[in-house]
Each structure stands twice: as C-alpha cells, then as structure tokens.
C-alpha cells in the first residue's frame, strides 16, 4: 500500500462586500510541504459561476476564470509557498479571501484534490430525462416546488428513471454510526462497486427554515468519521435542496457554509438527473 502523504489546502472565497462578509467558494489550492519546498501543488476553480453572479451581478467572471491558470503557474514555479500565500492574501484587496488552512492525508494527491473540488465547489452535471415509472409530483403552484416531501419525490423520480431504485439503500440509520437510539436516518445511499466509497443522499428543505440544514451539518461530522472507521470506506453525503434558493439571504449562506465545512455536498433538485446517472454508472447498472 502506498504511503499516505500529508497535504494541506485552503479555499479561495469571493467576497464582494467586506462589510457584509457574504462569500462564495470559487477555488481550492492544495500543496504538499516538502523539505526542498517542492512536492505536489495544484489549484482547481469552479466552472459554475451562477452563485457568484447571484451574489454580485457585476462580478468580473473573465478575470476570476483566468486566476486558475495564473495561480497554477505560480505554484509550480516557486518553492517558497508561504510567501505565495501571503502574496495571494495581499493581492486582491479582500475581494478574494483565503479560508483557514486545512490538512488531509492521501496516497493520491491529484485524486484527493478532485474529491475536494467536488465537495466544496459542486460542479453540476445534467443529462436528458428518460422514460420510466415515476411518482407524481403535487401541483404546488410554485415552479420550484417546496418542502422536504417534494424534494424526496424529485429524488425518487430521478433514481427510478435511472433504473437503480431497487439497488439503493433506503432509510440508512445513523444509530449504526453514532449514538445508539439516534432516530435520524439518511434517505438514500449506495456503496460503489470497488467498496471505497459510500454515497449518501438526504433531502433538506431550506425555504422556510435552515434548522434542518444546520442540524445535519453539526451531527454529520461525528457520524461520517465513525462510518469511515467501521466500514473502511469514505462516506460522501449530498444534501439535496430546493432549486432557486436566494444566496442573498444571510441564513441561507450560513447554512450552506456550515454544510460545506462539514464536507457535505449541496445539490439542487435540478441536479438530480446527473446525480442519478452517476449512481447508475457507479453501481454498474
């Protein structure tokens, strides 16, 4: 087995108004501390700028997009990465800020960076819908729909259309990986074919209250850690939320940040076809 390597990473956050402090994660920088100043170093940026435009309609997306290549060049050309971090902090007048430095262990830094990119930057995938048995959705009069039950039906329909409904674990109990008697259950899940990851999915409505999102974020850190130890697999939880949430609401941004800090992916209901198709491929269906 390859030796685990000690890696560090931080997030790049777009903060258009330093007074309000609202931000969107736009990039992630990962590097390896080595005695000679070398080692692995790379950067990934989001390719989905919708949340940035919602937060700041005047954002210079062209400039932000070009930063990825510029930072990658600087990372590979310098051995003094501490100085580079300070340079990044001083270069953008607080419009782009750095998160705290985080650490991780991996025998494959490039693969770990890709995983963290998916966790924190949430790339979106879309595929055409296919014909299959579906559960009728109620007419709520709202084009986006609302409430946990609506989200659950959207998730179920996507999994059914992908032909994997019967292959999923449903109502996965948290008590198996946390405190005995804990009544919480994840809505859906599956283990990928090589057994290295367990994918979990949970419907979280945030239209009327963020309480469910905050509670999920606070309890998942322990549950995920215990699950990884007991199953020898990496748990990856996706919280599925309503489409069209207003990122300008302070409470929404707070809940999203809490889930991201707990390494919970966040996906809108509109992303379920792509999620279900990926699940079909990983299950070999």
Please give a handful of descriptors for the protein shown.
single chain; five-stranded antiparallel beta sheet; 2 domains; 8 helices; 285 residues; Rossmann fold; five-stranded mixed beta sheet; alpha+beta
Oligomeric state of the chains in view? single chain
CATH topology grouping of the largest domain:
Rossmann fold
Uncertain segments: 123-132, 137-145
Give the distance, in angstroms, between the N- and C-terminal Cα atoms.
30 Å
Number of domains: 2
Written description of the protein model:
The chain is α+β, with helices and mostly antiparallel strands. It folds into two domains: 117 residues, no CATH class; 136 residues, Rossmann fold. Helices cover 37% and strands 22% of the residues. The strands form two sheets. Strands 1, 2, 3, 4 and 5 form a five-stranded antiparallel β-sheet that branches. It has a five-stranded mixed β-sheet with strand order 6-7-8-9-10, sandwiched between helices. Strand 2 and strand 3 form a beta hairpin. Helix 6 runs parallel beside helix 7. The longest helix is centred in the last third of the chain and has 21 residues. The protein is globular and about 50 Å long. It starts with a strand and ends with a helix. About 7% of the residues have low confidence.
């Amino acid at each position: 087995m390859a030796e685990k390597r000690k890696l560090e990473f931080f997030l790049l956050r777009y903060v258009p108004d330093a007074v309000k402090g609202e931000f969107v994660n736009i990039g992630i920088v990962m590097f390896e501390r080595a005695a000679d100043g070398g080692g692995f170093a790379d950067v990934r940026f989001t390719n989905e700028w919708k949340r940035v435009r919602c937060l700041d309609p005047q954002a210079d997306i062209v400039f932000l997009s070009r930063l990825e290549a510029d930072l990658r060049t600087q990372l590979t050309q310098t051995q003094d990465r501490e100085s580079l971090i300070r340079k990044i902090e001083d270069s953008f007048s607080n419009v782009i800020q750095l998160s705290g430095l985080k650490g991780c262990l991996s025998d494959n830094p490039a693969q770990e960076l890709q995983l963290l990119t998916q966790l924190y930057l949430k790339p979106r995938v879309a595929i055409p819908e296919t014909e299959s048995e579906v559960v009728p959705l109620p007419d709520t009069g709202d084009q986006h729909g609302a409430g946990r039950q609506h989200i659950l039906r959207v998730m179920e329909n996507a999994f059914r259309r992908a032909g994997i409904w019967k292959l999923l674990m449903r109502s996965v109990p948290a008590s198996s990986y946390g405190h005995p008697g804990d009544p919480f259950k994840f809505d859906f899940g599956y283990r990928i074919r090589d057994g290295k990851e367990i994918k979990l999915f949970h419907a979280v409505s945030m239209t009327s209250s963020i309480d469910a999102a905050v509670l999920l974020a606070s309890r998942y850190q322990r549950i995920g850690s215990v699950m990884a130890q007991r199953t020898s697999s990496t748990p990856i939880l996706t919280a599925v939320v309503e489409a069209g949430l207003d990122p300008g609401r302070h409470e929404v941004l707070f809940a999203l940040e809490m889930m991201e800090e707990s390494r919970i992916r966040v996906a809108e209901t509109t992303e379920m076809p792509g999620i279900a198709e990926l699940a079909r491929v990983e299950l070999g269906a």
